Every structure is written in structure tokens, then in C-alpha cells.
Amino acid sequence: MTKKITFIIMALFFIQVSYGQKKSRADRFFEKGDYINAAKYYEASIDKERHKKDIENIAVCYYNIFEYKKASLFLKQLVKGQFVEKGKTYNNTYNFKLYQVLSALGDYETGLDYFKLYKDNLYQGLDKSESIAIIEEFKLKNPDYKIEKAQFNSNASDFGAVKFNDSVYFTSDRDNKQLLSKTYKWTHQPFLDIYKVKVDNKIDTIGAPLALSKTINSKLHEGNFCFSNDGNTMYVSRSNFTNGKKEFNDQATNNIHLYKSIRVNGKWSELEKLPFNKNGFSYQHPALSLDGKKLYFSSDIEGGYGSFDLYYVTIDIDGFMGEPVNLGSTINTVNREHFPFISNKGHLFFASNGHLGLGMLDNFVSELVNGNFTKPINLGVPINSQYDDFNLNYYNEEEGFFSSNRNNRSDDIFKFNQTGEIFIREYINTFKIKDFETKAYIPEARVVLLNKGEHVIYNNTLSTFNLNLLASKYTLQAESEGYYSGVLQVKVLERENQEHVLYLKKIPPPPPVVIDPVETVIAEKKIDKNLKEKDPERFALLTDIEGPPVIEKDGKLYFQLEPIYFDFNMWNIRADSKKILDALAAKLERYPKVHLKISAHTDSRGTTRYNQVLSERRAESTRNYLALEAFINARRMQFQGFGELSPIVPCPMLNCTDEEHQLNRRSEFEILEY
């Protein structure tokens, strides 16, 4: 749906003159923007003869109607030269489109090959390995937002939600039930209108959405909009009208222009075109600064960096507007930048497919520092996906809306709550080296801290130290005389005053009599000495004394850990269990062939179904801690919840003590392979 407004000009780029032939029926549909019908007729003609123009146009058709699998099929044929013309060259833009559709289909690594080719052709270059690492970071970073689909979505495209007072305003192409209403050729849906719905403090709807009056909504498109702080001025993206008639550019396209309406006595005035609009170009997605002195928007006017750039105009006290000012190359790219929004702190949120992202349009933020916008930051998952994600705005410090077509071809509105810090900050971290048994500080410990790239960023000889660190993963190493050396995997989160403790185990004094510890274990566990030859891996596990021991029960091997307990009704890993799992992780590192089954059990309080679900979450939480915090390959671990079915202490009539219930809330670690 975003392409309804934003691609009207772009589509003209792909309209090419037939090769000395009469325009086909597919060509005529294509030139009118009816990509659904155009694709149907191109399919028929391509079956007979494969002309480059037809392959280009059908690829654009499927791209514009979100049929990304079909678009990728024809784009691949184009870049591979699978057409009848002898010249196998093609426009560089198709490399970018293939990168986008492959990313949308989940194959971003292959897509990056075409993005690199696209960049190389522009003499810009791209490091694919670095780009993959950045994209993975977008996907794996701790989410800064919680999202939920808004209640007032329809089966049509809904986007551009803006909350003002007790109502949410949004844009939609839902059926407005008007007689003789026209449909938009691109989508075969009604034209876009602006709607309003009342909501409560949870953004649940009160009543049905209603279209705004005909002074705002016309027979053609009304797209994105914004309000002044007092709510009495509205700026609207709208199909270009003058004196009630559509205006067309030299290519017979009706562009999008920006208009203004004033509310007087509760009624909106007729829309007035803003003075800086010029015929032949599109101006859209208005956004006001907090003080109302700057109006930001997206436009393809001449002199920009790409197809659509972000601009602003100043508004003086009398309402006079200056000329558009481009936001510059830090924000704008050779591709598309849309949907600006200025937060209360002056930060710029916008959507782009030119900055590195997860697929199609992604949401970005640029921090306002000393009056300038900084390098944009991708907001990551879940705000962004491999599809179009756009139109993010806040209605208070932490809550707002954005739009996405991630669930279907049509756009939906999502509400969000910001839960983390979106800008890069350094956070205070305290590191301590302590004795594993006594918990006392170990003086003169030699410490080394490595970053994610395994570069040393700190080393010293001490027992505790503080560092300001970016949110990321680090490795702490420590050693001291009389102790085993230790390693702690550190995950710095976006919060202050984090503490990380590395416990070192003392090296025991030499025994008065040399005793083979393996022989001792063999005797204690009654291990068959022939096992060393029959099954050396099993023998090694059973006789290894470092870390959690391995025991045998009923012919199966288990790691014998101190209990991994969970709080009542909870599944998060408690602090007292983390060091136990860290010790297990260290041993798993030494036995890379070992595969585990993590079994979680609950007490008998709660329903059987609830306890089953809770135990599954606890098992998954344990697996996730080992995978994400201790860096053990998740493929080595299975997990399963058993609910209340196998208690250590039976509790008929729930007559157990809290301590007995705690014993039943446990995890077990069975070795499946070694």
C-alpha cells in the first residue's frame, strides 16, 4: 500500500518504448498503473516470446503488487540475460530490486550479492561480510519495543495512524460504501481516505471508524497527514488538485502534493495547496516539529540524492513557508526515504530502503545532537521485518504506532511500547574476581576483557574494576596463583550498574599420597574398567572430575547439577542458578559432541495444562540461557516440559511445604549423544 503513494512517479521509470512494435494490451495496462492485469497479459506474451521489455515490466508488476516470489523469478531471468535480444545489459535499478525481493523472501545473503553489484555500479562499494554481521545484529539484538496489532485494522490497507486526544486518525482504502465510487487501478481497491475512531486509554476502539468529511476526503487519494499541537491545523498528502480538477505532469501522472486545512468551530476548511508544491513532482508524508516551526516531508524534487529524499520548510509566525531544504546525505540515499516523524526531543524517525535493513522499507531513527541529525540507526526486530515497515510515530514518550505489511499484502497498523534504549550508550559495568568457595575477593588477579571481535579492550592485575561499555557481548578472563583460570561470557545490557562476577576455583593442594583421581571415580561409581576400550567417550564423561559430574541412571547418562530452581509461576533463570548453568556450559564446551535433553518439572499448584505450559517455558528458558548467554549451540540441545507428572515429593491435596514445592520445580539434563 505504501507504493500507492510513493511509487507513482517511480513507475514511470519502467515504462519503455516498444521495440518498434505496437503497444500490447499488457503495455497499456502497465502504463495506466494496472499492474494486476498487466502481469496477467505479460505472462501470456512471455510464453510465446521473451522480450527484455516484457520481462522488465512483469517483474515491476509483481514487485508493485507484493508478489515477491514471482518478482524474483523474472528479475533473475533479467539479470541472467534470459531474453531474445542480443544485448544482455540491463538497468542497475533491477539489481537493487532483486536485493529487496530476495531479502523479503528471507534470502538476504544472496540478496546482498545484488546489493553489492548495485553499489559497485554506483562506485560506492559494499562489504558483504560486514553487511551480514550488521543484519544479524538487527535480528538478534535485544528488542527495544513490544508490539501488538491495533484493533481498528480491516482487511484492506490501513496505515499512518496518528493519535490526537481521544481519537486515532488513520489512512485506509477500505470500502467506504459510497455508490459509484471508483477503484485505484494499481490495487483494484478504493482510493485512500482518512478515517477517525475513538479509543480508550488502552487504544481499544469505542465505536466504528468513520471517514472524515468531504472537505478532507475526495474521490482520489488522501494519504499521510499530521496535526499541529493544538489540533486545529492538518497537513495532508493528497492527489494533486487545482480548482477541483486533477493536474498532470508531462508524463500524464497525477502527483501527490501537500495541503493544509484549518479547523474552525469544529469543522475543517477546504484543503489549500501549500505554496512550495511544484507540478511534476510529489510531496508527501508531512510531519511537524514540536514547536511547529518546521514542516518535514518526502519528495522527489530535482536536486536530491535519490528517488525520494526527506526535506523541511520553515514556517514563520505568520504562517509563511520557506523553500524546501534537503536533510543531506547523512539521512538521504540514492533510494527512498519516507514517512518522517519528529519526536518531542527532536529526534528524526523515518522509513528507508536505502540504508541497510532487513528487507523492504525499514524504520530508522537519527538522534538530534547539537542541532544535527546523526547517522541513522535501524530500529531492529520487532519494529522491522523483511517486508515494508514504515510510518512510525509516538503519541507519548514511550507509546505510538507504525505500519507494516508483514502479515499479508495489505498494510496493518501496529501499536508499540518502547521498553529499551534505542540510541547507542555506554553503561557502567562492575567486574569482580572472587573465590568460588568463600566468595571473597581474589587479590592480584590478572584480568583480560575481550570484545565481541576478540580484541583486548582492558587488562590489569586487580580484584575488581569498573568500565563504561556499549551494550554488546564480551569475554572476561582471569587467573591467579593457586587458582584455576576462569572465563565468563558477559552480556552488557541497556541498563546502568550491572555487575559481573567471575568465580575462580582453587587448585587443591597436592595429596599426601598420589592417587589417580580416575581410579577413585571408577571405584566410587563402580565403572567397568573395560569400558575405556569399549566406549572411550562414555568412560571419559563418567570419569571427568572437572565441572558437573556425569552419572548413570537406568543405563542413561545425566549431568549431576545442583538443582535449577524457578520461582513460583515464573520461568526466568534465577541468579542463583546462572553460575550452575555456566559451569555446565564450560563442560559442554569441552565436549562438543554432547547433545542434551533438558527436562523441566513444576510443582502441583495450578492446573495440569498450566503446569505443562509453564514447564515447557522453563525448559525453553534453560535452553535459551545456555544458547544465548553461555554461547552453546542451540542445535545440541532439546527441551521438554513434563509439568507436574514426576514430582520428587508427592503432594496429595497440595499439602506440601514451600520447600517441598521448590524441590519439585527443577530441571534435569540427560545426555542424548556424545
UniProtKB/TrEMBL annotation:
<dbReference type="Pfam" id="PF07676">
    <property type="entry name" value="PD40"/>
</dbReference>
<dbReference type="InterPro" id="IPR050330">
    <property type="entry name" value="Bact_OuterMem_StrucFunc"/>
</dbReference>
<dbReference type="InterPro" id="IPR011042">
    <property type="entry name" value="6-blade_b-propeller_TolB-like"/>
</dbReference>
<feature type="domain" description="OmpA-like">
    <location>
        <begin position="553"/>
        <end position="674"/>
    </location>
</feature>
<dbReference type="Pfam" id="PF00691">
    <property type="entry name" value="OmpA"/>
</dbReference>
<keyword id="KW-0998">Cell outer membrane</keyword>
<dbReference type="InterPro" id="IPR006665">
    <property type="entry name" value="OmpA-like"/>
</dbReference>
<dbReference type="InterPro" id="IPR011659">
    <property type="entry name" value="WD40"/>
</dbReference>
<dbReference type="InterPro" id="IPR036737">
    <property type="entry name" value="OmpA-like_sf"/>
</dbReference>
<keyword id="KW-0472">Membrane</keyword>
<dbReference type="InterPro" id="IPR006664">
    <property type="entry name" value="OMP_bac"/>
</dbReference>
<dbReference type="InterPro" id="IPR011990">
    <property type="entry name" value="TPR-like_helical_dom_sf"/>
</dbReference>
<protein>
    <submittedName>
        <fullName>OmpA family protein</fullName>
    </submittedName>
</protein>
